[in-house]
Prior knowledge:
This protein is an alpha/beta fold. It has helices at residues 66-71, 98-112, 124-135, 159-170, 176-182, 190-197, 207-211, 225-235, 256-263, 282-301; strands at residues 3-4, 22-27, 33-41, 48-52, 75-79, 89-90, 117-122, 140-146, 242-247, 273-275. The strands form 2 sheets. An 8-stranded mixed sheet has the order 2-3-5-4-7-8-9-10, with helices on both faces. The longest helix is centred in the C-terminal third of the chain and has 20 residues, at 282-301.
Amino acid sequence: xxxxxxxxxxxxxxxxxxxxxxxxxxxxxxxxxxxxxxxxxxxxxxxxxxxxxxxxxxxxxxxxxxxxxxxxxxxxxxxxxxxxxxxxxxxxxxxxxxxxxxxxxxxxxxxxxxxxxxxxxxxxxxxxxxxxxxxxxxxxxxxxxxxxxxxxxxxxxxxxxxxxxxxxxxxxxxxxxxxxxxxxxxxxxxxxxxxxxxxxxxxxxxxxxxxxxxxxxxxxxxxxxxxxxxxxxxxxxxxxxxxxxxxxxxxxxxxxxxxxxxxxxxxxxxxxxxxxxxxxxxxxxxxxxxxxxxxxxxxxxxx
Length: 303
């Protein structure tokens, strides 16, 4: 497996991202290792809030939320998925599979030995994070799901997502900063656009980002469909608190919150909220509000 590593100088003086980098090595599934980066802020003995990003962002997406979460006395942990941010990037898009992404984060999770986790997941953060929960339910205390889902390929996919899937592999210039901007309701400052482009010195670093949408199961016989169905079997029995905090301006995941609210026992009777004025990347548009929702939910459901 050929691995690319973004030079450290690409991450110097990023706007509003003062966090020290931390790394662990995880198996690449071919006998080698990958370096996986994460942010870890707040009291080390506090309950962890696991902030999982999606496509094509990285832990920078949570920069507005981390200070609010730590101010509430919690530990904020935000990894970069393999292929994104400061984590290593396999150079061949065929090196990326849904199962490998789950396995890479699972290996990272085991090394940190996190307990009583509050999962906060958006986009692919949910597709991976909810699989982690299903495999390790004893480690998770609660969930906040925002603009995400756990598809099995058994139900129709939105036209908006199918268009995005086609665009991501065919567009000649896969401009990460511009893509993030298009997924927001408010204009992004130039510094933020630059930060989203920072992990990708050239197009060779973007293979993981380009292929990610194609890994979403959209047919019943997709390679990931059975594993996601098995994960749903665990979620259908998950009685710990489960909150939805979807935004009102995301056409890709619109309506997905109703599935969680209907099917997951722990979602019953929770103060589900709609974040007004947020696009797909509601952490950008309404990060402070979402962070407060998370902190309040943890406080309200604490043992």
